[in-house]
Amino acid sequence: MEAKRMAGSVNKVILVGNLGRDPEVRNTQSGAKLVNLTVATSDTWTDRTTGERRERTEWHRVVIFNERTADVAERFLRKGRKVYLEGELQTRKWTDQQGMERYTTEVVISRFRGDLVLLDSQRSGGDSFGGGPSQGGYSDQQAPARNNTGGSSGAPQRSSGGGGGWDAPADNSLDDEIPF
Predict the structure, then answer these.
(1) How far apart are CA 79 and CA 99, in angstroms?
(2) Cα torsion angle, 70, 75, 79, 80, sign
(3) Can you give the pTM of this predicted structure?
């Protein structure tokens, strides 16, 4: 029996946090849309010596290169919204106005990898806008074909199908707000 070889490394980031500001939408020179987000994740604990409640917040830069996910982010994301996202860490080098080389590390949702899920959707939560091949686009928690209980468990809500497309309701009624 031959042993399988594993990949030498994995670059995957999963964040659940709140948007620090509205998305910044820009177009590249080739006309492709990209969206910059700032996501805050917080950790709270009680200090053992003083008994005081402590909190630490980390800020994460996120860049969306997936066209559909960028469209959805532009339409639905606003400051304060809670999101689940998956991406990769990428560091880029740039030169500031004084000629100094700088480095910025970002979570990147690329064209074919990554995921973005709204956890506190205005329509009762769980809208998924995946960029990865298994997510295949838009899923809505309110669609009858969804495989969930409708409650907010804190876990991202995903499509239950696996055909690369979105899950159509069993009664063939379609939502008017499909973003593509």
Answers:
(1) 33
(2) negative
(3) 0.63
